[in-house]
Amino acid sequence: MPAPSASLQATISKVTKRLLPFLLLMYVLAFLDRANVGFAKKAFQADTGISDAAFALGASIFFLSYALLEVPSNIIMHKVGARIWMARIMVTWGLISAAMMFAHNEFTFYVLRVLLGAAEAGFFPGVIFYLTLWFPSFARGRAMGLFYFGAPLAFIFGSPLSGLLLDWHGLGGLHGWQWMFMVEGLLATVVGVWAYFYLDNKPADAKWLSAEEKDELTRVLAAEETHKTTHGPAHLLSAMRNMKVLHFALIYFLIQMSVYGVVFYLPTQVANLLGTKVGLQVGFVSAIPWVCALVAAYVLPRMADASGNRRGYAAAILAVSGLGIAASVATTSPALALIALCFAAAGFISVQPIFWTFPTDYLGGVAAAGGIALINSLGALGGFVAPNVKTWAEAAFASQAAGLYVLAGTTLLGALLILAIGQSRALPVAPATRRA
């Protein structure tokens, strides 16, 4: 593949500045609305009487409806475009997330979490697919790395925000967790309305690109699509039963187990380390691992691109994450435990943009829309399995550490499966990009 022209690189820079900040904002709100239940845990259970097992089920049941509707949602987006469909997703999930303020018993909690999963289904794979419509292979890893700033940013800024809102307990006759769900949910709804007016479906629709910029970018992307559909599955059904796609899905499942096994319980774990309740102080300390993840999400995908060995980098990064999860409960020192959590979060966040370059370099067209959604939906089941496996392991081994040890083991298994990914015939990273 020839090195990208200066004009193409300038166009990619223009696209990055236009799209990535807004997509990043959307992801921050999505991740925050998905994970803020972890901040509400103690106060929510104290006010509602919901048990640990019921909380784990409610927190994780989100992923069942989310996984079930991922593929249909992404196929719809492929047909109607991101502008309409992303706006629909954000508005509905924001309203349902705000309605969590009315979850006063187990049944309501379960129902709203199922509805939240259904509303958000298709958002993440939709964005991944959307990036393939705007960024050629040589630029996609970095673009995804920037998009993955969303998760750590959600905790860097969202953790103190969630802690602050929890401290509003009693204001206006509402519990703190009610304020948190309402405010953060309505923020997502507002951004969803904005998305309808801001996003363009594809480069040809972008009034902010010149005709020459549109033509060159469209030509490069079309050539890559032809290459991918020639060497990989070209149709939806062939992608759904492709063994390589299922291999990707298993890896992503294990990555998501590590993510949500930590995310749902990080505020509680930090509170225990500090010997205090979840509030503003815990929110600030909980943000520290995500600062490390933010730096890693910027640096490591770029290093992986430059090395030309994305697979080796991804495996090593995920292995470090697994060791960090294990070390966070192996030590009795709060400082060392926090450092271990920094390595864990940095690893399982920064490995994901590198991981997504594998399927997006392999899949094209409607096969990409369906295949990416399938990988994400099966992977999302890791978010359902992780809290329940963690709770089971802690009960079975009568140890609060057992759950995280199990999740550390599954994370290391994911690293081994990354090494087992075969060589792809998809487009290589451009030489000029590797030297950058």
Can you count the helices?
21
Structural class determined from secondary elements:
mainly alpha
Q: Given the C-alpha coordinates, what overall shape results?
A: globular
Specify the biggest β-sheet. Answer: none
Keywords:
mainly alpha; 436 residues; 21 helices; disordered C terminus; 81% helix
What is this structure's SSE topology?
Blueprint: H1 6-35, H2 37-48, H3 52-80, H4 82-99, H5 106-120, H6 123-132, H7 137-147, H8 150-156, H9 158-166, H10 176-198, H11 211-231, H12 236-240, H13 243-263, H14 266-274, H15 280-286, H16 288-307, H17 310-330, H18 334-362, H19 365-396, H20 402-419, H21 431-435
Helix pairs in contact: 1-4, 1-7, 1-8, 1-10, 2-10, 3-4, 3-5, 3-6, 3-19, 4-5, 4-6, 4-10, 6-19, 7-16, 7-18, 8-16, 9-10, 9-15, 13-18, 13-19, 13-20, 14-15, 16-17, 16-18, 17-18, 17-20, 19-20
Structural write-up:
The chain has 21 helices and no strands. The chain has 436 residues and is mainly α. The model is unreliable at 424-436 (pLDDT under 50).
Quick summary:
By secondary structure, the protein is mostly helical. The protein contains 21 helices and no strands.
